[in-house]
Amino acid sequence: MRNRPTPTSHEVKLGEEELIISKTDISGRLTYTNRTFMEISGYYEQELLGVQHNIIRHPDMPRGVFRMLWSTLKAKSEFLGFVKNLCKDGSYYWVFASVTPDVDRGGNVVGYYSVRRQPPSTAIRTIESIYQKMLNVEQSAPSKKVAPDQSIDFLNDLLRSKGTDYERFVLELYG
After folding, report:
1. What is the mean pLDDT of residues 97-123?
2. In sequence order, what DSSP letters do the residues of 39-78 get, joined into one string?
3. CATH entry, 19-174, from 3.90.190.20, 3.30.450.20, 3.30.70.920, 3.40.190.10
């Protein structure tokens, strides 16, 4: 496994008009990244292509969020959500992500497109607190195998108490 950078407290902000765009194959290996992706993450194209997209996964992100993402994509639906990513130098950046399956004419998923944009800071303050609670649930779970499901259960219970679901919640936060 590749050495992961040590996270720092330095935040890199995506510009208001900037979009991070990437494409992966069906297994999540990067097949395309735009210049903004490379500039923000600090990786060169040759360091990214053919590598799992989770190269930029920040340890502050609950595994449950990614389990929801993959479950949504496997159902051939679009996933919307807030994600904290890790730069090559240990810095981090937040995005509002839209991830969609790339479906061929026969209806088969052949990969995934992801478009990320700058999230509102008010949304990040809200979601950061929720993600921290999800991480706490995962850390106190009896096993790593059930940890993501338990954090998803926590999130769904929280959102049900607010009369919403994850997609509506993040769309309202994005505003």
Report:
1. 97
2. HHH---HHHHTTSBGGGGB-TTS-HHHHHHHHHHHHTT--
3. 3.30.450.20
C-alpha–C-alpha distance, residues 85 and 90, integer Å: 10
- The C-alpha R_g of the chain, in whole angstroms, comes to 16
In this prediction, residue 60 carries a pLDDT of 97
Domain ranges of the chain: 19-174
pLDDT band at 4 (very low <50, low <70, confident <90, very high): confident
Tell me the H-state helices in the chain: 35-41, 45-48, 63-74, 121-139, 147-161, 166-174
> Is this prediction's pTM over 0.90?
yes
